[in-house]
Amino acid sequence: MADAPVPPAVRPRGTRRWWPWALAVVALLAAAAAAGLYAGLRWVLYSEAGTRWALEQAAARLPGFTVREPLGTLAGDFQAAQLTVPAGTGRIEISRLRWTGLRPHGWQWTAPYLQLSIAELTIGRLSVQPGPPSGEQQPAGAPASLRLPLGVQIGALRVDELLLPGQAVPVTGLRARVTLGDAHRVEAFSAAWNGLRAEGQARIGADAPMSVDAGVRVRSDPAAAAASQRLVPEWAESVQAELKAAGPLAQLAAELSLRMQDQTLQAGAVVTPFEPLPLSRLDARFAQLDLARLLAPFIARAPTTSLSGSAVLTLRDTGQPLGVDVDVTNADPGAWNALRLPLSRAVVRASGEGQRWTVQRAELQAAGGAGSPAGRVTAEGSWNAGELTLKAALDTLVLEALDQRLPPMRLSGPVEFDMKPATASEAAFGELRVSTKLQGGLTQRGRAGAPAALQNQPVQLSLEATATPTRYRIASLDARAGDARLAAKGRAERSSSGERWAVQAGLQLQAFNPALWLPGTTDSAWRRQRHALNGTVDLEAQVPAAAPHAAEMLRQLRGKLDARFDGSVLAGQPANLSLTLSADGAGRLESRGQLQAAGNSAALEALVRVPADARAASDDDNLHLTLDAPSLQRLAGLVEGLGLERLQGSAQLDASAQGPLGGWIAQAATPPAGPPAGSTAVRPALPAFRTQGSADVRDLRFNDMGLDRLLGHWDASTEGDARIAADVKAEQLRLPGLHLPSAAVLADGNTTAHRVQLDAELRPAMQQQAIAQANAQPAPAPLTLRARLQGGFEQRGGAAPSGWRGVIEELALRPTDAAPAALRGRDPLPLLVAENLRLAWTHEPGVQSLQVEPGQLRLLGEVLRWSEARWRSTQGEQQLALEAEVEPVAVTPLLRRVQPGFGWEGDLRIGARISMHSEPTVTARVEIARAGGDLRINEFGVVQSLGLSELLLRFDAAGGVWNFTQRIAGSNLGRIAGQQTVRTSPTALWPEPQAPVDGQLEVRVENLAGWGVWVPAGWRLGGQLTAQLGISGNFGSPDLVGRLEGRQLTARNAIEGVNLRDGTVRLSFEGETARIETFRFSGGEGTAGLQGTAQLGENPRAELQLQAQRFALLSRVDRRVVVSGEASVQLGRERIAVNGRFRADEGLVDISRADAPSLSDDVVVRRAGDAPLTNEMQPAAPAADTSRALELNLLVDLGERFRLRGRGIDTRLEGQLRLASPRNRLAVQGEIRTEGGKYEAYGQELEIERGVLTFVGEVSNPRLDIVAIRPNMDVRVGVTVSGSALSPRVTLFSEPPLPDTETLALLITGRSYDTLAGNQTLLLQRAALALLAGDGSGEGGGNIMEMLPLDELSVRQTEGAVPDTVVTIGKQISDRIYVGYERGLSAAAGSWQVIYRIAQRFTLRAQAGQDSALDLVWMFRWN
């Protein structure tokens, strides 16, 4: 049967091909994605919202990336106030960024895939801030290509300031056209720096071999320096340089041509930047090179030289010859310590190949100051695959000529140095050997400072030493100078296990003078002292090769040190020392020592056991120290030799201690790390401790510290109920920042219950220095400190206390009657007062804590209250918790104390809150805010309110981010708003100085009158002030970017006659630089202006120019001065320099009007309730002058319209004065002359014929040469004034010469003495008396009447046929009693009078003499 045929397959119904649809869907999705991507990119690039979003995303995802005040779109025109971009471990900060015309174009399939064109890119300031090194960097190989994925074309690049690392002066005015693409090009490049102008271009191919063609020209450009308003450094003057580079990047041919003042340098080089030796060949020719000027931009203290010669260095690849040929002469040699190079010539010739090279010749000719020969050094040697052989020879080498701090010796002899290669790969070398035998003698200066027995003796120095990585050996070290000798030897060898070093050493000294071999600096007193050491030192020890910490190192130490010095002389004083130290390798350290020097002695005995980790400390360690030093001043030579200033006084000390001294050492020397993971070991508590002793110190002076007297004794223990007692008193303790006229500490009780009290007087060190300089009597201290506390240690068995708990009953810092008026006032204002503060301190192994119970204290009279205050340290981890607040403070009373005459009124109250926690992450919130009220200023009855609406100062910290906020606002005060962010470690209690900061500060003040609190009393301000500043950089030295502007500014002081108006101020801040664009004020009909720049930061400085044009400096009725001129001002941290010239266009000084009433410096105001004034109380001396060094050079011309008027004088002054400031004291040189004028005296008008005031230094005491005559007289009569202003001499003169009575008569009356009537004679006598006594106007009060204890001294003439001249003297004994005596010149005797005023109208008069009488006088007055 045949098979049936198979029917054909039938296609299922509805089946279609699906893959075309799938492809279509994928294509549609891809198109949609592309369209979305395009739309998104376009939104980001071409819309402001998209640009802001992109920048926010970059800032959130890229640490360190910040942008402030962005404006515009990325594509097109864009600008930002500041942009910070991370760069490795550092960052790049860009200020005032702006670009225009940015557009993408030129898509292609090979790099660069896209081109970006920028019409103009402008940067106000670009600062490169380097970070810490990221570790060892491996040298990078040559790149295969320099093509970038993105091409850039910048039509105009402008960078106003470029600040590079390590350079304080920025590069300015950088301009260029930049292209990055198939080839990278920089065209039309120009920039200025330090008075130099650089111009050039560069091109480098993007593909191999990356050909380079670059050139730059540098020249001095004073105009560029003037535009940047910077001083041109001396080294940058007359500079011309050109640098060219060409060839493939891997092997560049470079040429340098330099002419710098009188220096020239021509050099050619082959540079291989990607090879281990980047310099393949160097050929340089130079003349008169000064390294100090050449390297000044990079090294601050390079030596001054004058180098001429050549240097040829040839380096090839491995296996090729190596050659060095250097021949240099130095025309300006000198000692190294004087910043000179002590070489007159250096010649080096060497050649080699691969790992083998040879030094055929090396010769160094030494020279000292003025080119004096100082010997030479020659050497030859070889290097052969790690084996070095070097043989050198010294030929009469004068060591002190090389550096005056070296020994004053002249040495000759060989020095050999051999090194064999290491056999182990990890060792740096195999074996080293050093051998030298030098001989010579002392130089002339060395002989002058040496004992007579050594002056002409030979000097010898020999050394034999070898070293391997595991063994160091000094076979012999011998230093001799005549009979004086130092001999030493020793070795150190590492054990086979590598755990210990075995050390043995011995030292012998015989009449050895250490200052001869180690003289120190040239002006060191150590050189001038006589030294002769005799003794031995022996050491034998086993030292651990490694230990986890210093305590373990001490515990494992084993050995003995024995030092004996007998019959020695140190710093000119006899000295003996005996010292023994021993260690047993198990922590036991024992010491015994005695020292006797210059009549002073000290002795020490100590036994200390350092416990191992987690082991109990010994309780019988002990230490005993005694000091008997009755004449410390005899050690002054040694103190000076050690570089200290002074030592004098006497000291007696006897102190001992018993207890766990080794345990304390272990705790102090062990790092605060916790026990290993899983370990339960805990360091045991320390046993009890006891100390006792006494001290007696008198007239101690050490460096800038002093102590007149300290007397005290103590006896304290931490065991059980042991007694604690201490009584220490100090007088006149002077510390660098504080002076304590007296201090006393008294403690009494036992371990569990004791009391401690402290009483001290405090005076700022500056005030004490002023008292000492003035040689005045010590004034009472302005502050007193008083502290009282009681409590007890908490015991734990017989161990040392685990803590202390107690109460501070009183802690007060109060002003005395000698305090500043702001603190003293009618009601003294205590600085600090605290009472009944309970606190607890605990100390356990690895844990310390301090807790203060909730309480309060008064600070400047206001209450500071806290609810939590505790600190805890656990295994080095710090924890802090503080919750506190300051109750609202009334501000007006405080301002009235600071400025009592300013007119402060109001009810402003300010409060504060403090919250700070560290566990260990720091969270904090500190806020000072206005709690209510306002301030007002009452100025001559006109009351003005500040209108305060907001006052807030706050900072918050969380997660290492610190936010600082400032907000101050008032209707008449203006507005200050600021916000800054600092990022630091989350566990830091305060940001470190290097922490980055970013923020801004805005100031808008509509009326500066409200800010008068910041200016001295008597001054008033006005005007408007605005500022918009950006803050960046580091927290310790932030950079400011922005502007400050002031309009309609005024500053006036009615008392002094200063009235500045119409002021305009414009300041710009650019990082660490501030520029004064406008600073101008009007005064009278003229103006004064200031311009310049200031460098902020760690080393602030400013360079300013002051100009005045008919500027009214003083506008008071009696003092009017109008000046014109200019001056330059340089301000630095330690120096102020002023140079200029001014001329008085108009001036008037009226000396008939006195200044506003003021009290003398020696007047002390006493108020009701003040403490009684004792004889010791003297006014405080003025503060010491702590100003910076002043260099003043001002020429002042009085002009032709300067008048002096008052007290009978009316004249015009002319002349010039030069003001200087030697040693920071004002000195004046020059003459002031009178031109015409009159002088009214004794009712007569005298003409000033000549008047000259000559200044020769002190401004208050010029020399006087004044002649005034009575006009219209046949005889020339007048007065002359000579001498000095502080000691003038007034004399009468006449031409022709006449008797004094005749001259005086003609001067006063215009008539001869013989023709005078009685009343005219009386006038003449009174004029003579006035000449004798003075007018009493001088401040010194030095006239005769004031010096004599008399109230009346008169001369009169009697009437009658025979007139007589009568002299009368008298004294008012009291309000009612007068005693007088009178006598005629022709009488044989005189008469006494006693007048007693009985009542208002009755007087009793008694007279005895030639005529005796008793009179009762009754007086009746009527109209």
Automatic annotation (TrEMBL):
<feature type="transmembrane region" description="Helical">
    <location>
        <begin position="21"/>
        <end position="41"/>
    </location>
</feature>
<keyword id="KW-1133">Transmembrane helix</keyword>
<keyword id="KW-0472">Membrane</keyword>
<protein>
    <submittedName>
        <fullName>Translocation/assembly module TamB domain-containing protein</fullName>
    </submittedName>
</protein>
<keyword id="KW-0812">Transmembrane</keyword>
<feature type="domain" description="Translocation and assembly module TamB C-terminal">
    <location>
        <begin position="1083"/>
        <end position="1422"/>
    </location>
</feature>
<dbReference type="Pfam" id="PF04357">
    <property type="entry name" value="TamB"/>
</dbReference>
<dbReference type="InterPro" id="IPR007452">
    <property type="entry name" value="TamB_C"/>
</dbReference>
